[in-house]
Amino acid sequence: MFNPIETLIRSVTDIDADPYSLGDFLGVDSRWCQRCGNNAILTAVQKLCAEEQLAPEKTVFVSGIGCSSRLPHYMGTYGFHALHGRALPVAEGIKIRRPDLHVFVTTGDGDCCSIGAGHWLHAIRYNMNITVLLHDNQIYGLTKNQVSPTSPRGLVSNTSPHGASLDPLNPLAATLGMSNISFVAQAVDWVPSVLYDVIEQAFHHRGLSFVCIMQRCPNYLPDHFEEYIKNPDRLVLLTHARGLQVEESIARRFKHREEHDPADLDRARELSMPRDRIPLGILYRNPEVLCYEDVRSGVEHLSVAERMAALEREFDKFTVDAASPQG
Ligand code: SF4
User: Whose CA is nearest to atom 3 of ligand 1?
Assistant: First the structure.
C-alpha cells in the first residue's frame, strides 16, 4: 500500500534501487462481488504498475461513479473518485498541470457512454496522454440493475421490465468514428493474458489510449457473456507486428486469428461492427496524432506572483457590483 513516509524516505535517500513489488500497489480490500470481472482488471493494472516500476506517488487513477469506479480505492497509488461522468475532464486537468504523472481513467459504460458521453467525445479529440479503461458490463450495477447505453436490446431490468427497446451503443465503433483517435483496443476480463497485453500496449502509447473491456457482472447478468466464455470460437484474436504480439501458447487457444494492421482504420471500423465474433486486440493505433498538452502553452514560465495576479483577474470577472443592473 502507498506509504507517504516511505515515499519521503525514498525521495531523500539513495534507496530508489529497491524495486516496487505488487504489494506496493494494493489498496483497501475490494468490495466487489465474487467473480466480478472488475477484479481481473484490477489485478491487471496492479501487475502493470509493478512490472513498469511506476512510482505510486507519480501514478493516479481517476474514476467517475459506478462499480468499476471504485477501482482507485483498491490501488496503492493516488486516486480521484470524481463525479458521475466526470472522470475524463478531471484526468485531463491533472495531466495538463502534472504531465509527469501516469494518469489512468477507469470508467463504466454508464459513466462514460451516458452521462459522460460529451466528455468522452472531447477527451478523444484532445488526445492527452492518458490510459482510459472502459469497464463495459452492459448494466448499471452500483444502482442495482438498470439498462445502460450498451445493454443489449430486449434486456429485462428494473428500468426495462418489458425489455430494453433500443439497440445498444457500440463504444468501439463510436470511438473509431471520432476525430483525432489515436489508440483503440478491446479485451475481455476472462482472458487475463490478452487483457494484460492490451493494457500494457495502451499504457505505452503516447496519446489517449481507449480500451473497451467486456466485463462480467455475475450479480445482475450472471449468464450474459457465457456464450463467449464457453465457446472461444466466438472470439477473434487480432495480432500484428505493429499491434498485439502474444506467445504461441496463448495464440493457439484461439481458433480464429487475424493479422490486423492497427494503421488500417477502415478494417478497424469493420471489425468493430456487430458480428458473430468479438475482436480482441488493438484495432487502431496512430502515434502521429497531436497531443493537446504538446501544443497548449503552459504557465510554467510565470512566477508565483504572476500566477496569483492572473487568478485574481479571472475572479474579478465574477465580481457582483451593487451598481450593476440586476437581470
Ligand atoms: Fe461487479 Fe456487478 Fe457486483 Fe457491481 S454488481 S460489483 S459490476 S458483479
Answer: 33
